[in-house]
Specification:
This protein has 15 helices and 16 strands. Helices cover 41% and strands 14% of the residues. It is globular, with a radius of gyration of 22 Å. The strands form four sheets. It has a seven-stranded mixed sheet, with helices on both faces. The protein has helices at 3-25, 27-36, 79-82, 91-101, 112-125, 136-151, 212-222, 247-257, 277-282, 308-311, 328-341, 344-368, 393-396, 401-413, 434-452, and strands at 58-62, 65-68, 73-76, 129-133, 155-159, 182-183, 186-187, 204-207, 226-231, 261-265, 288-291, 302-306, 373-377, 380-384, 416-417, 426-427. The chain folds into two domains: 3-76 and 343-452, Aspartate Aminotransferase, domain 1; 91-341, Type I PLP-dependent aspartate aminotransferase-like (Major domain) (Aspartate Aminotransferase, domain 2, 3-Layer(aba) Sandwich), CATH 3.40.640. With 453 residues, the protein is of the alpha/beta class.
């Protein structure tokens, strides 16, 4: 038996034991799950919340901790799928929301806070103008529409395996199986969801992440038809795959050569990994940027924006509206989050904690010969169960699912609340402490030792 086979065998044993323990200690979550199945498909409000054998139902959160309906306390590294870089119930954000609520929760009319928030987002992302919406899906949907209106073209490009929300044009080649992916030089545009019109595949073109050769060939053939390319500048639905040196600038140059608009989907990266997101961190600014999640203080807000020239399409007939856009509660929370919580000192603190966490986990991996690696992007990071860093979606297909299946119940049973999927990341907050990080490292180190035993 090879070392990998032995580790996988131990992982299967651990997964069985720890899952049984998880079920034993979460009876009320099971009760709520069985009740929820009657009123919600799969017992959850979003399919991403599904768990195996059921999700853990939470009652509340405070600081760096969350609490489930069985009364258990966890260090939260789930972070609401990456939103909660402030931690839970942060006093400054809670006060801003309470103050706004006392003055009226909804007007569907402009407010000063919305203007101030727009100015702050434009400053952070070096944008001329911005428009609000209510989710990352809406942000990417609107950005693509505006790019199409600006260029007069209909086709779009996306990276193979990337996720940009659940509107139809981007619901292709998100999680294709290996047998339907097509060749690397011409990846297949494969629908993710039932109900997606098949004819749309002709308008959504797929290229590998970190590959300019395939993109160049596509643009030479079809560039005059393509309105935009939408891209996560750091792929964050496969763990974390960072752009290789020169990739983002080379991609921008190729697109602009053919008059194609570059859209950065910074729903996950924006505000979290740097003050101005990945565009700031890697020094490449796109034509349009989409933000949500961490930018809005834990409320359901989003935005997209960019150059005045492209955004002027909205005043020339490109539809962009929404009853709750710029809602006063969301605007107040986002403004407090960006101006009072996520300061320069906060980013330095998050960088220190992130390095502490990733380094501690990497030490445990190396000491026990686990085929895995860590990625450190400040507030965001991950353990990816493959020996070498990911460069694209096809690399992600080589990750070891058995190791993740053991890690999730192990960590949750030791008081670490994690995202339910090997494709996700951890998120830490300004309210996490060194002790929180050390507790995570201790639990993970014990897991690595158990896998190697």
């Amino acid at each position: 038996m090879t070392d990998i086979q032995r580790i996988n065998a131990r992982a299967a044993e651990i997964a069985t034991t720890e899952t049984a323990r998880l079920i034993e200690r979460t009876p009320q979550s099971k009760v709520w799950y069985e009740r929820a199945l009657k009123s919600m498909p799969m017992g959850v409000g979003s399919s991403f919340q599904e768990g195996d054998p059921y999700p853990i139902y939470l009652s509340h959160g405070k600081g760096s901790r969350v609490f489930d309906v069985d009364g258990s306390e966890y260090i939260d590294t789930h972070g609401g799928f990456g939103c909660m870089v402030y931690g839970h119930a942060h006093p400054k954000i809670a006060e801003a929301i309470a103050r706004a609520a006392s003055r009226g929760t909804h007007f569907a009319a402009p407010t000063p806070d919305a203007v101030l928030l727009a100015e702050e987002i434009c400053s952070r992302y070096d944008m001329d103008q911005v428009r609000f919406c209510n989710s990352g899906t809406e942000a990417t949907m609107n950005a693509i529409r505006i790019a199409r209106a600006h260029t007069g073209r209909d086709h779009i490009i996306k990276a193979e395996g990337s996720y940009h929300g659940h509107h139809d044009p981007v619901m292709f080649s998100v999680v294709p199986n290996a047998d339907v992916m097509g060749g690397r030089e011409m990846p297949a545009s494969t629908p993710m969801s039932l109900g997606t019109p098949k004819w749309l595949a002709d308008y959504t073109h797929v290229v590998p992440f970190n590959d300019l050769v395939v993109l160049d060939a596509l643009l030479e053939e079809r560039g005059g038809e393509i309105a935009c390319m939408i891209l996560e500048p750091v792929m964050m639905n496969i763990g974390i795959a960072q752009p290789q040196p020169g990739y983002l600038q080379g991609l921008k140059d190729l697109l602009h050569k053919h008059g194609v608009v570059l859209i950065f989907d910074e729903v996950k990266t924006g505000t979290a990994i740097a003050r101005g997101g990945a565009g700031d961190l890697y020094g490449v600014r796109p034509d349009l940027t989409c933000v949500a999640k961490a930018t809005f203080g834990g409320t359901p807000g989003a935005a997209f924006g960019g150059t005045a020239e492209i955004m002027s399409a909205i005043g020339r007939g490109a539809a962009q509206q929404g009853t709750f856009n710029g809602n006063p509660l969301v605007a107040a929370a986002g403004l407090a989050a960006l101006t009072e919580v996520l300061t320069a000192d906060a980013y330095e603190y998050l960088a220190t904690l992130g390095t502490r966490l990733a380094s501690g986990c990497q030490t445990a991996i190396d000491s026990n010969g686990i085929p895995a690696h860590t990625v450190d992007l400040g507030a965001k990071g991950c353990v990816s169960y493959r020996p070498t860093p990911l460069t694209n979606y096809r690399d992600f297909l080589d990750t070891n699912l058995d190791l993740y299946a053991a890690s999730y119940p192990w960590m949750v049973n030791r008081g670490i609340f994690m995202t339910p999927g090997d494709e996700e990341q951890w998120t830490i907050s300004v309210q996490h402490t060194d002790t929180d990080i050390d507790n995570y490292i201790a639990a993970f180190s014990e897991l690595c030792a158990a896998l190697a035993s």
